[in-house]
Amino acid sequence: MSDCLFCKIIKGDIPCRKLYEDDEVLAFHDINPVAPVHFMLIPKRHLKSLAEADESHQALLGRLMVLLPKLAKEQGLDHGFRTVINTGRGGGQEVFHLHIHVIGGGNLPPMVRRD
Ligand code: 5GP
Ligand code: ZN
Fold first, then answer.
1. Over the stretch 20-77, which tens digit does the pLDDT of each residue have?
2. How far is the CA of 52 from the centre of ligand 2 (A)?
């Protein structure tokens, strides 16, 4: 996807603070962190959002999920972390290349305010 921001990051056309890369996956720090640690884990294969996932993505999504806690630990998130996948405009997604936010360090407030 030539006009996709995260595909450009994968290609190296836009720089990022990379923390992990393999043939299928890239992890990099969020440019605008909401907590002391905030990075994103993305598949290199372009997938617009979780809403577009099907059986063909099963192994890849599993790989992301298994890798994620290892990276969180490497980033010092020994006491826990939050994972967020914003999906579609209604879910607050702004970059339409599937990504899992990993957020932690310090004490996170409750995810949803009930007031
Ligand atoms: P979304 O709202 O789509 O779930 O999250 C998009 C995230 O991408 C935001 O947290 C935003 O800070 C991050 N972001 C947007 N542009 C860039 C960029 O050029 N580089 C990096 N590293 N993160 C970005
Ligand atoms: Zn993309």
1. 999 999 999 999 999 999 999 999 999 999 999 999 999 999 999 999 999 999 999 9
2. 13
What letter does residue 46 receive in the DSSP assignment?
Answer: -
| 35 close to ligand 1 (CB < 6 Angstrom) | no
User: Does residue 99 carry a pLDDT above 80?
Assistant: yes
Max alpha carbon distance in the chain (Å)? 44
Task: State how far the Cα of 65 lies from the Cα of 3, in Å rounded to an integer.
Answer: 26
Element (H, E) at 82: strand 82-84
CATH class in words for 5-104: alpha beta
Domain range summary for the chain, segments of one domain joined by +: 5-104
How many degrees, rounded to 5, is the angle at CA 39 between CA 36 and CA 42?
Answer: 170
Shortest-distance Cα residue to atom 20 of ligand 1: 31
What pTM, to 2 d.p., does this model score? Answer: 0.96
End-to-end alpha-carbon separation of the chain, Å? 40
Mean pLDDT of 79-92: 97
Tokens of 70: 């290892």
